[in-house]
């Protein structure tokens, strides 16, 4: 029930005209959830905590923009989970996953679920090269050269935070992206 409430909330926010990043649901949230489940099952993680965190990890960027979105996403997660009566101890675990998911911000990941979310977030970028380029052009207002560099750097950060297990899954896409963005 809670996962359906979270998913519905994220879908509604992503589909609003005021959403900061159009297409983020299909291009990012759904792949993050997919990879979270794959890795979570393999590693024996708490799948409920992981899936809730996967749905909410970037909601702050949808509502308020990318800057400090790990922080705004945590605040939104805490508020919404409290509204839905989710236990505080579990909410804290979800928030830790969210606050530590970014590759560009160095926050120690203290749980298996936090590590998996960070990896799934990185893995999702390889499923949506077109979406990353679109974001670079439209939302970030970059030119072609800047957009290519932006995407290459983002993919490298994503790759760098992956475990060997995750790298094995995503390596063909990483190699293809590097070749295309050369």
Secondary structure elements and pairings:
Elements: H1 2-15, H2 24-43, H3 47-56, H4 59-64, H5 69-83, H6 88-99, H7 112-125, H8 129-139, H9 144-160, H10 164-180
- The rounded Rg comes to 16 Å
CATH A-level architecture: Orthogonal Bundle
| DSSP strand count | 0
Calculate the mean pLDDT score and round it: 92
Just give the CATH class. Mainly Alpha
CATH superfamily: Hypothetical protein af1432
Q: What is the share of helical residues?
A: over 70%
Overall shape: it is: globular
Please identify the structural class as seen in this structure.
mainly alpha
Largest sheet: none
H/E order of the elements? Answer: HHHHHHHHHH
Distance between the termini: 45 Å
Low-confidence stretches: none
When the domains are counted, the total is 1
State which percent range the strand residues make up: under 5%
CATH topology: Hypothetical protein af1432
Number of helices: 10
Keywords:
globular; 182 residues
Concise summary:
The protein has helices at 2-15, 24-43, 47-56, 59-64, 69-83, 88-99, 112-125, 129-139, 144-160, 164-180. The chain is mainly alpha-helical and 182 residues long. The chain starts with a helix and ends with a helix.
Structure, explained:
This protein has 182 residues and is an all-alpha fold. It has a single domain (2-180), classed as Hypothetical protein af1432, CATH 1.10.3210.10. Helix content is 75%, strand content 0%. It is built from ten helices and no strands. It has helices at 2-15, 24-43, 47-56, 59-64, 69-83, 88-99, 112-125, 129-139, 144-160, 164-180. Helix 1 (2-15) runs parallel beside helix 3 (47-56), helix 3 (47-56) packs across helix 7 (112-125) and helix 6 (88-99) crosses helix 7. It is globular and about 50 Å long. The model has no long low-confidence stretch (mean pLDDT 92).
């Amino acid at each position: 029930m809670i996962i359906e409430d979270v998913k519905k909330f994220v879908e509604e926010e992503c589909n609003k005209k005021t959403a900061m990043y159009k297409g983020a649901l299909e291009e990012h949230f759904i792949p993050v959830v997919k990879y979270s489940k794959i890795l979570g099952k393999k590693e024996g993680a708490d799948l409920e905590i992981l899936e809730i965190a996967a749905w909410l990890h970037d909601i702050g960027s949808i509502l308020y923009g990318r800057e400090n979105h790990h922080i705004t996403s945590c605040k939104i997660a805490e508020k919404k989970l409290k509204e839905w009566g989710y236990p505080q101890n579990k909410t804290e675990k979800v928030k830790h996953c969210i606050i530590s998911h970014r590759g560009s911000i160095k926050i120690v990941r203290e749980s298996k679920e936090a590590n998996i979310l960070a990896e799934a977030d990185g893995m999702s970028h390889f499923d949506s090269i077109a979406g990353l380029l679109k974001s670079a052009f439209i939302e970030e207002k970059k030119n072609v050269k800047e957009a290519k560099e932006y995407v290459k750097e983002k993919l490298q950060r994503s790759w760098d935070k992956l475990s060997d297990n995750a790298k094995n899954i995503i390596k063909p896409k990483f190699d293809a992206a590097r070749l295309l963005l050369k």
